[in-house]
Amino acid sequence: xxxxxxxxxxxxxxxxxxxxxxxxxxxxxxxxxxxxxxxxxxxxxxxxxxxxxxxxxxxxxxxxxxxxxxxxxxxxxxxxxxxxxxxxxxxxxxxxxxxxxxxxxxxxxxxxxxxxxxxxxxxxxxxxxxxxxxxxxxxxxxxxxxxxxxxxxxxxxxxxxxxxxxxxxxxxxxxxxxxxxxxxxxxxxxxxxxxxxxxxxxxxxxxxxxxxxxxxxxxxxxxxxxxxxxxxxxxxxxxxxxxxxxxxxxxxxxxxxxxxxxxxxxxxxxxxxxxxxxxxxxxxxxxxxxxxxxxxxxxxxxxxxxxxxxxxxxxxxxxxxxxxxxxxxxxxxxxx
Amino acid sequence: xxxxxxxxxxxxxxxxxxxxxxxxxxxxxxxxxxxxxxxxxxxxxxxxxxxxxxxxxxxxxxxxxxxxxxxxxxxxxxxxxxxxxxxxxxxxxxxxxxxxxxxxxxxxxxxxxxxxxxxxxxxxxxxxxxxxxxxxxxxxxxxxxxxxxxxxxxxxxxxxxxxxxxxxxxxxxxxxxxxxxxxxxxxxxxxxxxxxxxxxxxxxxxxxxxxxxxxxxxxxxxxxxxxxxxxxxxxxxxxxxxxxxxxxxxxxxxxxxxxxxxxxxxxxxxxxxxxxxxxxxxxxxxxxxxxxxxxxxxxxxxxxxxxxxxxxxxxxxxxxxxxxxxxxxxxxxxxx
Amino acid sequence: xxxxxxxxxxxxxxxxxxxxxxxxxxxxxxxxxxxxxxxxxxxxxxxxxxxxxxxxxxxxxxxxxxxxxxxxxxxxxxxxxxxxxxxxxxxxxxxxxxxxxxxxxxxxxxxxxxxxxxxxxxxxxxxxxxxxxxxxxxxxxxxxxxxxxxxxxxxxxxxxxxxxxxxxxxxxxxxxxxxxxxxxxxxxxxxxxxxxxxxxxxxxxxxxxxxxxxxxxxxxxxxxxxxxxxxxxxxxxxxxxxxxxxxxxxxxxxxxxxxxxxxxxxxxxxxxxxxxxxxxxxxxxxxxxxxxxxxxxxxxxxxxxxxxxxxxxxxxxxxxxxxxxxxxxxxxxxxx
Amino acid sequence: xxxxxxxxxxxxxxxxxxxxxxxxxxxxxxxxxxxxxxxxxxxxxxxxxxxxxxxxxxxxxxxxxxxxxxxxxxxxxxxxxxxxxxxxxxxxxxxxxxxxxxxxxxxxxxxxxxxxxxxxxxxxxxxxxxxxxxxxxxxxxxxxxxxxxxxxxxxxxxxxxxxxxxxxxxxxxxxxxxxxxxxxxxxxxxxxxxxxxxxxxxxxxxxxxxxxxxxxxxxxxxxxxxxxxxxxxxxxxxxxxxxxxxxxxxxxxxxxxxxxxxxxxxxxxxxxxxxxxxxxxxxxxxxxxxxxxxxxxxxxxxxxxxxxxxxxxxxxxxxxxxxxxxxxxxxxxxxx
Lengths: 336, 336, 336, 336
Hints:
4 copies of one chain form a homotetramer. By secondary structure, the first copy, chain A, is an alpha/beta fold. Chain A has helices at residues 11-23, 50-55, 107-120, 144-157, 190-197, 213-225, 252-260, 269-273, 276-288, 315-332; strands at residues 2-5, 27-32, 37-42, 59-63, 83-85, 88-90, 96-100, 124-126, 161-165, 179-182, 203-206, 231-235, 265-267, 293-297. The first copy, chain A, is 34% helix and 18% strand. An 8-stranded parallel barrel of chain A has the order 7-8-9-10-11-12-13-14, surrounded by 5 helices. A 4-stranded antiparallel β-sheet of chain A has the order 2-3-1-4. In chain A, helix 3 (107-120) links the parallel strand 7 (96-100) and strand 8. In chain A, helix 3 (107-120) packs parallel to helix 10. The first copy, chain A, is elongated. Chain A starts with a strand and ends with a helix. The model of chain A has no long low-confidence stretch (mean pLDDT 91).
């Protein structure tokens, strides 16, 4: 880390600052020039608060030479991480096609959808059992029963299952779940992330609506710092002024993340756009820019389409998307 | 709720929709004109998902005639709520001046700050014991010990205490805390909100960085639906493209909230701006537009200023702010 | 347009409103129900100010049944528009590959780049002669000389040229320019748009940093209302809180625009990301979601790379992108 | 300016960079340490493009020690600028109360409003003659006739007039206008700003919807670099995800601007909120945080209220706001 001091900074204040830095078990290296005085800091600066230092009145600016994320940093782990999910893999050229309904609603529904998405090319089954809803008066999911039904669908189809957790106290229910999802609203629920770091389950972390790419990495870091390196990141749209889509899908995040981290990155075009007819073009775009997987909502019963999300595809639409994605991938990753 | 149908909507699809609505225990009223067909829905529509209905391909638009928030809605409770906190009150003309350090660091620190903010006019003491930090490597607070020290400061000064909870499992530690704060990152941690709804403690909910005013009300609704009507709302800045301040303080939210809800609204200018010298003007502006209180960070030990947040005031600065706020309030609320 | 009135609206106020609407040469149709009174408005409501009506205290909400954009609306022109640019075409399956340097700097530079991008597959040459710069102290372009040099490059290579206008008074200089670009900062410079509407030149309008998709269409409408239907739209990133890329490329805008309008939509991944190594993945993603063209910055002289934008590709990199884009297009538009 | 190089930067690349910097008439000062190599740049670095340098692959970061705005910078002009407008002043303790209708509609309208706002305490009259409208089909103002009517109102009341320019070609019409307004959409219409820099008229520049505080200062710089130092800045809300108000009024911008520049800063609560009943609280908040003036929309004819903006106050409401603002100012600026 490098601190650039203001020209007006007094000797005494500079001395205080250096003393404080060194009290944090760091070494300093001072360089004075005509233009500015600079303090270089040597050691593990990940615990130093950049914002705090920037705001000191004698400081003109602060630049990190090293990033505050360690375990997820590609610098220290240049090869792509490959996360194993049952017999499936994700990352390092392995593409995950995760599909299923927004919410688990009944035994028949989840098993029918599971079979049809499997036939259409899905490699994992998603489905919400615990549902975070803006309103306390909205349907909150089938909860434990929803997980039981997902597990039944897994036994029937062999598809690994992905489902969201909202409360660390529910962890015992997730024992046979293959991938535990942390929703966008809980991306900075650090207490939950810490508990998930104590497991060895693959954890899929969705980017929060107003969270930067670096904050997403810091949330991954919470899980990894606990000893669980099985983290999958998910871009699902950020909140902007545009209202034509539910959120604004930030596909450049896929590219930026691939540069900064070795973790796999999947994209959720269903929640990002909120509109079924935009899912296919955004799924193809995600595949074209190198995403390691997709999460797509699929419903099965046209008569009940009303209750499924407006962003859900029918199985035959999903099959069409899956086929086009496969073709895009032959161009983007020809060797795989 | 009113649904405006597209001119192209077929009779059969319209019939399906009406049938589904009526299956939700709601009555409908159809009105067909040259311009459009409209379905009026009568009954408790708070459970209907507006976004879902909007996205149906036969629907041109949906308008709620009633808001989805009930308990917090001023329509059903025209008088300002007054929340009692120990012997202090907030709302309905009662102004809360909440001050204290970012984090509780030591017995000496919290008691010294508590005494000095009390002398300067604070009516409650704030201080972080559990600290949500973006990085797992940053200081996470003194936790249970921090709460003990806050309670000691309360005994010494008589000031009620306000401190943040991050995990419902910690609730037993908050038994003697006067106001439990839900941080911006947990504003949509619905599991936590539900647990707080089972208590009778005043709950101060901070607006999330990317959350709308209506979503803040829906989070209040989670607490109130559980039976706890002691909710205080807090505007603390939203995330925008502007980087000159840490966040963008949205003071019009104070005015909008006063129109929509009877709950008191406080403003946190310290976290919103992130810069100590912007705290006074923003505190005065908040008082001028009718806020029911302020939360201001104050540190005490100039020699340790480095470790306090760059947004913290010294006690004498806080005293100056408190005095100016009192004067502003004589103009804005002359009768109180 | 449909106006939903509040239940509290008095007869007299409703009568006033109806009278006023009818004074605007529109007919009304009233429908009163238990739930709400609704005014349907028949006639050309594009001149009615939706925001104004929404804010009347007797109005609960307003819904447009028809969009305020007419000439650009796909409803009235279902087939894709194909814009002719010299012998090239764009839209309706014709893909434009526009490449060139950020600024025209010298005769040698622009001719060398023109030749190399042509060889690499470009169908048009871009280059800035008039440069909008945030700072008055920055290089503002070669201006008229820059346009002369672009025309020379056009004569040498046959490539049609695309360059930005900042002032309608400069129009005479653009007589031989093939496509006139309106930059993001001038998207709502309505005086400029009106003047461009009087020409028959293809006009490429870049989306403003904080402008919605609908506002972009309204700006196209300014040109088209003047009689010039040769409009090309360009997505180039919007301003959000994320700072990892210069702007956030909103690729869903391509899909939304294709639904709302018949005009061609191109994407500028160079300005959107601001980073050369992100250009290829974003170009492929744009092609995969159906964009009608790309605008890519290419510089030629490695020794002078410093002065070119950090987002510029070298010719051989551009060639690689162009080839991959062609392959993606064989999947997305197999028939072309 | 200070450039921090990556540890991996080769000698040769560093030498190239230094050579290029020195070719720009700047001197360099190199400092190599264990941690990083730093290049300090001495001379007028306002012409160096920070973004370009940041993106070089050998550069880890760039920090400006001096700001790119010069004429507007408080560092070089510590005293507040006081702009004279007829016999009125603004800045340095002089407060401007600017009021009037959204658009000039008729002789009677503008003269009646002018008289009533003058009686209520306005010090200047605003009114739109040239109206920037998102839709080409909306009313675009009375144009030259509107300016004539404003001048007539000025003769009748003595109030200086403030009105918007959209095209530098219209400047001759503005000869007797007292303050020329540049609207938010034209904040970065650099061609217009340059022409205004050639006059000596006070120029009121509104902040663009998606423009940072620093960009607003750079736009002021365009006018000032031309020789016109009579610039007034205006905060009028920025575009965010929140839709409860038309824009989000960023009052901290007032405070930040007062720190960075000596120019006066006014606030427009009418356009920022878009709702008449939010104007008073936001006006008081603006006064409380030190704004140098307010621009408030006032209409006069209740029967025609429909056609005035929903954000307009009636004269008696404006009088109430003006009186409360005066009281707030006695607290904030007791000596004036």
